[in-house]
Amino acid sequence: MEKLSDYTCNPEYIDSWNKLMVHQNILMETLNDHSKPTKIQIEGLGDVDVAHLRNHVGVVQEAFDLRMRLTAYWKIVLRRLVDSMALHLLFSLQNLVNKEMETEIINELIGPQGNGLERMLEESPVVAENGRGSRTASSCSRNPRMSFPTSWTELELMWTDYD
């Protein structure tokens, strides 16, 4: 849309362009007064040598305006590119998770022979071992004569007694 008209709804563009256009009067004074130095300081561009522009004073204002518009708009273009890349990355990740990984997860749940859910419901050896230990520990807590260990050594001795 901006290619077809001189319009943008970004207020930062106008502010940036106005700050850059302040230097136009300094440029014109430098070009018209040959006793002044040929380098001027422009915010965002640094030191600019304008000696070669003294031969083209008729188009300098228009060229300066165009250059300042491009400089002001370039910040917006860069931000749009970064936003576009971030949104594309987010879209690609969502697509990966929602479509491609979904089929892999479903295939893993169902399993090659349709027994994926049954495999999930089976108790793993680690869980089975931990369950046996917790049953032993709960039986220890029911014994009123038992006391809690005060050191690691006592704890290790207590566990070896019950194994």
Automatic annotation (TrEMBL):
<dbReference type="GO" id="GO:0005525">
    <property type="term" value="F:GTP binding"/>
</dbReference>
<dbReference type="GO" id="GO:0003924">
    <property type="term" value="F:GTPase activity"/>
</dbReference>
<protein>
    <submittedName>
        <fullName>Dynamin-related protein 4C</fullName>
    </submittedName>
</protein>
<feature type="domain" description="GED">
    <location>
        <begin position="63"/>
        <end position="156"/>
    </location>
</feature>
<dbReference type="InterPro" id="IPR020850">
    <property type="entry name" value="GED_dom"/>
</dbReference>
<dbReference type="InterPro" id="IPR003130">
    <property type="entry name" value="GED"/>
</dbReference>
<dbReference type="Pfam" id="PF02212">
    <property type="entry name" value="GED"/>
</dbReference>
